[in-house]
C-alpha cells in the first residue's frame, strides 16, 4: 500500500502565517495528477514543529478530504512526549489517515529502551499502521537497527523512514527486518540506491517540486528499469542536493513560490532562503524542468 514516491508535503501559509487551505488543496490535486504515490501531511517538511495541535490536525483533515481515497495519506504524528504522540496518532486515525509517520522523540534524548517503549506504547494505543522515522541530524536521537528489529515484531509498526543517508545503515535494517517491515528512504540523494537494495520507496522533499519525475523514477526502480531510473535520478540530482542548501523546508518553499504554487511564507524561526543561494537553486530547478 505504501510505496514509490511519497511526497513530504509542504504546508502552504498565507502572508499572515495562517494555513493557506486553498493552496494546500491545490497542491494535493497537482500531486495526484502527476502520479505521486502517497501524500505525507505535516511531517518535517510540513513545518510540524511550528503548527499548534489545531492547525496540525486541520492540515491532516484537509489532505484526507482532498485526496478522497485516491492515494494513501500518511500523517506526521510524532512528538517528544509519548502521550502527545498517542493523542495525535489517535486523532489522525479518526480523521481518516491511512498511516502515521512517527519521528523519534527530539531534544530529550531517550535511550534505546526508551525508544522501544515509546513506539510500543503508541502502537498499543492506536491500531493505525505506523512508520518509524529516524533523522538523528535533526532530532539528536538515533534509532538503532537492533531497536528497529525489536519493533518490527509489533504488527502495526509496518515500516521505517531511514533518513540518515547512510547506505550501510539501510542495508543492515533491510537485512534485519526486510521480511517483516518495509524500509523507505528519507534522503532523496540516496533513494534510488536504497530502492535497488530493497527499499519500497522514498518519502521525498524533491517530489514537492518535481512530482512527475520522482514518481516515474520510483516506478522505474521498482520495475527493474535501471536505465530509466538512473536517467531521471541524474536529472534530479542537483535538486536532491540544493533543496538542502539551508534547513528544510526553507529551500523547497522558496522553490514552490518561484513556481507560483504557494506563497513564500515560513514561520519563524525559519527565514526565507538567503539571496546568495537563490541562483544555485534556480539553476537546479531549470535543469530538472521545474521552470
Description:
The chain is 47% helix and 13% strand. The chain is an alpha/beta fold. The chain has one domain: Alpha-Beta Barrel (TIM Barrel). α3 runs parallel beside α4, α4 (112-125) packs parallel to α6 and α10 (226-242) packs antiparallel against α12. The radius of gyration is 18 Å and the shape is globular. The model has no long low-confidence stretch (mean pLDDT 97).
Number of strands: 8
Q: Class in CATH? A: Alpha Beta
Mass-distribution shape:
globular
First CA to last CA: what distance?
A: 32 Å
Tell me the radius of gyration. Answer: 18 Å
Strand content range: 5-15%
> How many domains comprise the coordinates?
1
Look at the structure and give the mean pLDDT: 97
Which terms would index this structure?
single chain; 291 residues; alpha/beta; TIM Barrel; globular
Summarize the structure in short.
With 291 residues, this protein is of the alpha/beta class. Helices cover 47% and strands 13% of the residues.
What's the structural blueprint in terms of helices and strands?
Blueprint: E1 4-8, H1 21-34, E2 38-41, H2 53-67, E3 73-76, H3 82-95, E4 99-103, H4 112-125, E5 130-134, H5 136-139, H6 145-151, E6 157-162, H7 167-177, E7 182-185, H8 188-197, E8 201-204, H9 211-222, H10 226-242, H11 250-258, H12 278-287
Parallel strand pairs: 1-2, 1-8, 2-3, 3-4, 4-5, 5-6, 6-7, 7-8
Helix pairs in contact: 1-2, 2-3, 3-4, 4-6, 6-7, 7-8, 9-10, 10-12
